[in-house]
């Protein structure tokens, strides 16, 4: 039996905010918050289906249409850039129009983009469908989605819920990468694109029927908390998001954080997620084997992120970032000699290490944002996350151009390794905050 309202000693002001109607009191059974969290988990998995696709389709599209890898990479880069630039405003959209409406429209945009690509005949259509539609759709379901759900529906167990919802993206990669790779290998790229569209559409009914914007919509208190009235639709949140960006941009630590995190995105989503499979295929590794290796990264990035959070509570976040980026750079220098037609133990070691390091940079980067910018740290981190996706977008495009020009990805791996060394130095250059935390004036 779960209680919807925590029994505590009330102050007069708090008691005035409490609702005394029967529906706001104890109810038997599972709290509605867990149902909302489950729907959110499934939605993130459905939305993450597209992220499994681009790296698998570079070679098939190049073969069928003759489009260069640079053109295909440009479409992926548009998607990643829009994902990053939409993310800081996603929370504002949800505050203004409601979680359910925003997510349904976002899933529909992803499905429309994936499905329309089945009939494309020109490269500009690829950029429109994959880049614009899917980029806006996935960006609207970025970290702000899980953060908004957690903050509204849970007063207790927020850490657990946040961790589980963060893992949903990796779970989606684990599910869809091998599946889409098998479909592409056996039936071609079009059925794989249709599969992604159907995965996004399949979630829409669950979101519309089971998702609610606020516990007050169903007369409940947040899990482990007290009943509060649903606030009026927020206004001016988007303008504050922009103001915080301009204020933070006048400080040195912001550019060091954004620059290093851009390199993080470049060496993960932009490089490995987009170009690992075609690079492995260049070395005659089966596409299903290469995709399975990427799926393994999805397993270990969960472990790496949790462990990195534990380390961040105990060690200097700057030094942790420096170590993460330095080790990532060294591993990329060895990758060209590890790519073989078959999966050998050294390659497995690289995949496990890269998975552990994949998003291990997030906890210390978030901790540094909090240290530097106080109460505005969440918004600042949203913009730092946008830089992550812009970095990913640039390498998704430039990596394809380099492959077209040089005939291999070797120079891309070496350049990315050098960039990671720069990121390590940038992390060490971030100043320490002494005394009270400075906040950005808005």
Automatic annotation (TrEMBL):
Biased composition (Basic and acidic residues): 12-25
Cited InterPro entries: MFS, MFS_dom, MFS_trans_sf, Proton-linked_MCT
Domain Major facilitator superfamily (MFS) profile: 35-435
Xref: Pfam families: MFS_1 (PF07690)
Domain of life of the source: Bacteria
UniProt-annotated location(s): Cell membrane
Membrane topology term: Multi-pass membrane protein
Transmembrane region(s): 33-52, 72-93, 102-122, 128-148, 160-184, 190-211, 253-272, 284-310, 322-341, 347-368, 380-399, 411-430
UniProt xrefs under CDD domains: MFS_YcxA_like
Residue numbers spanned by region Disordered: 1-25
Keywords from the named record: Membrane, Transmembrane, Transmembrane helix
Presence of the UniProt keyword Ligase in the record: no
PANTHER family: EG:103B4.3 PROTEIN-RELATED, MONOCARBOXYLATE TRANSPORTER
Name of this chain's protein: MFS transporter
Native organism: Streptomyces brevispora
């Amino acid at each position: 039996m779960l209680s919807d309202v925590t029994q505590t000693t009330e102050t007069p002001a708090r008691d005035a905010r409490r609702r005394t109607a029967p529906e706001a009191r104890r109810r038997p059974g599972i709290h509605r918050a867990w149902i909302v969290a489950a729907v959110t988990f499934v939605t993130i998995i459905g939305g993450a289906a597209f992220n499994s696709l681009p790296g698998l389709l570079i070679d098939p599209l190049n073969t069928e249409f003759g489009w260069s890898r640079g053109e295909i990479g440009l479409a992926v880069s548009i998607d990643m850039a829009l994902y990053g630039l939409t993310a800081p405003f996603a929370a504002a959209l949800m505050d203004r129009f409601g979680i359910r409406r925003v997510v349904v429209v976002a899933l529909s945009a992803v499905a429309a983009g994936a499905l329309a690509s089945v009939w494309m005949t020109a490269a500009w259509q690829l950029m429109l469908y994959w880049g614009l539609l899917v980029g806006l759709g996935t960006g609207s379901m970025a970290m702000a989605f899980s953060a908004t759900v957690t903050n509204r529906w849970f007063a207790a167990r927020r850490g657990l819920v946040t961790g589980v919802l963060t893992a949903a993206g990796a779970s989606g990669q684990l599910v869809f990468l091998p599946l889409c790779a098998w479909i592409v290998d056996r039936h071609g790229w079009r059925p794989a694109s249709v599969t992604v569209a159907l995965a996004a559409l399949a979630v829409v009914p669950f979101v519309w029927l089971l998702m609610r914007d606020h516990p007050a919509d169903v007369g409940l208190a947040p899990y482990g908390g007290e009943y509060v009235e649903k606030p009026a639709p927020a206004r001016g949140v988007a303008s504050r998001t922009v103001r915080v960006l301009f204020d933070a941009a006048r400080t040195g630590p912001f550019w060091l954080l954004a620059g290093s995190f851009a390199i993080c995105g470049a060496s993960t989503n932009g490089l490995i997620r987009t170009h690992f499979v075609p690079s492995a295929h260049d070395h005659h590794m089966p596409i299903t084997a290469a995709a399975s290796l990427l799926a393994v990264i999805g397993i270990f990035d969960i472990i790496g992120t949790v462990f990195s959070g534990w380390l961040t509570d105990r060690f200097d976040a700057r030094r942790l970032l420096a170590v993460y980026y330095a080790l990532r750079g060294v591993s990329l220098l060895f990758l060209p000699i590890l790519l073989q037609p078959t999966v050998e133990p050294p390659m497995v070691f690289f995949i496990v290490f890269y998975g552990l390091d994949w998003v291990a940079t997030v906890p210390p980067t978030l901790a540094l944002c909090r240290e530097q910018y106080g109460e505005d740290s969440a918004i600042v981190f949203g913009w730092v996350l946008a830089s992550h996706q812009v970095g990913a977008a640039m390498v998704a495009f430039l990596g394809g151009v380099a492959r077209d020009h040089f005939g291999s990805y070797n120079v891309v791996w070496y350049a990315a390794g050098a960039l990671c060394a720069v990121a390590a130095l940038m992390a060490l250059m971030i100043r320490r905050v002494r005394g009270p935390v400075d906040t950005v004036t808005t």
